[in-house]
Specification:
Blueprint: E1 2-5, H1 10-21, E2 29-32, H2 43-46, E3 56-58, E4 64-66, H3 68-77, H4 89-117, H5 131-154, H6 165-179, H7 189-198, H8 202-205, E5 214-215
Parallel strand pairs: 1-2, 2-5
Antiparallel strand pairs: 1-3, 3-4
Helix pairs in contact: 1-3, 1-6, 4-5, 4-6, 5-7
Length: 218
């Protein structure tokens, strides 16, 4: 399998953490796509992923699979023993619900803030910016932090009693928040404590070291 990504990107981090949790690193090679040079918007890359986003998984039969949730679902099911996406219908439903909330209320708003209310990837890539919209999304991300703080006051993980895909998405959101210097509010003690613990998890610690060997960018 081949994964097209950017080693330190928060969205690629979701798949890299999933790979580590599933012990699949040895089955993957990484191809680096330089976001700051806009390589994810070139015709060659858009032929792989219409959305022009990272990461993208390429299978041996030539199938290209984008979207972190879809890639994680695929990886988790390969061995018939899912760890990250749920085993029972109830587990699957709750995990997918909380994963979507992590995207809508935290990760994606931080991304919009980055692309619209900061220099983002630079003028050659950020062809349109709406600072007001970016700042509104920044505030939404902070509200999302308070929401997940409330969840983690009641249970050890985002979707319940076990680590799941939903936790990975919140982790990615907080990675991105750190990158744009958007701190977790001091009042969110449960979220801050949880995130400190997650940063020590081997799969999270290893996400950047997975970049060897990095192939030439597409």
């Amino acid at each position: 399998m081949t994964i097209y990504d950017w080693a330190t990107g928060p969205y690629p981090a979701r798949v890299r953490i999933a790979l580590a949790e599933k012990n699949l690193r040895s089955r993957v090679r990484f191809v680096s796509v330089n976001l700051r040079k806009g390589e994810h918007k070139t015709p060659d890359f858009l032929a792989k992923n219409y959305s022009g986003t990272l990461p993208v998984l390429e299978l041996e039969d030539g199938t290209f699979m984008a979207e972190c949730t879809a890639i994680t679902e695929y990886l988790d099911a390969l061995d018939g023993a899912p760890l990250l996406t749920g085993k029972t219908p109830l587990e699957k439903g709750v995990i997918h619900m909380m994963n979507k909330r992590a995207e809508l209320e935290l990760l994606d708003p931080v991304s919009v803030y980055f692309h619209h209310a900061t220099p983002g990837l630079g003028p050659d890539v950020e062809l349109y910016q709406n600072a007001e919209w970016g700042l509104r999304q920044r505030d939404k991300a902070v509200r999302g932090m308070h929401y997940f703080d409330g969840i983690l006051k009641r249970q050890p993980f985002v979707a319940g009693e076990v680590f799941s895909m939903a936790d990975i998405t919140v982790i990615a959101g907080l990675i991105f928040a750190g990158f744009v210097e958007l701190p977790v509010p001091a009042q969110c003690e449960a979220l801050r404590t949880w995130y400190a613990a997650m940063q020590q998890r081997p799969s999270v610690r290893s996400r950047v070291t997975m970049s060897e060997p990095i192939e030439a960018a597409v």
